[in-house]
Structure prediction request, 202 residues.
Amino acid sequence: MAFELPALGYEYNSLEPHIDARTMEIHHSKHHNAYVTNLNNATAGTAVETMSLEEICKNISQHSMAIRNNGGGHYNHSLFWKLLSNAGGSPSAALLAAIEKDLGGMEAFKTAFNNAAATRFGSGWAWLSVNADKKLVVSSTPNQDNPLMDVAEVKGTPILGLDVWEHAYYLHYQNRRPDYISAFWNVINWNEVNKRFEAAML
Ligand code: MN3
Prediction:
């Protein structure tokens, strides 16, 4: 069973002006699509092609670099599209309480997350995850790694992530990654984050 490019669930222009339609179109139909194609090529005819992306990530150190990069890329982008919305929303009371307890409040969390996103050298991601102790942690990963991977410095179940590869923002923001990071806060699908937080706390 081959891996497939998921539909976005909204229009390419839905997130404007924060993330422009052209960037969304290229990011989804070209970049994400290439990760899916390359993952299928790397896993065809092997046991890996029937595994879930979560399973693959969990033992990523046992897989090839092609599977790490493209499996990570497929997992990360499939999650990222769901975390974006023009519908607004806000963190649930339970999530806010955990942010207060584990990260020192919403402002401290935003500062830590923005800092993780801004200081990731080269390409990568910023994350908010629930770790094995059911605590919220902010981290960043290089390339297409993520906190599910056994190679991640900070491990956990990601509930929010931001792609800081240049392909995610360069057409509209050029070198202004911090502007893209602040715009991201306007298009977070908090209902999805809340749902993932609840599931990760079970
Ligand atoms: Mn990307």
Q: What stands out?
A: The pocket of manganese (III) ion is lined by residues 27, 31, 77, 163, 165, 167-168 (CB under 6 Å). Residues 21-43 form the longest helix (23 residues).
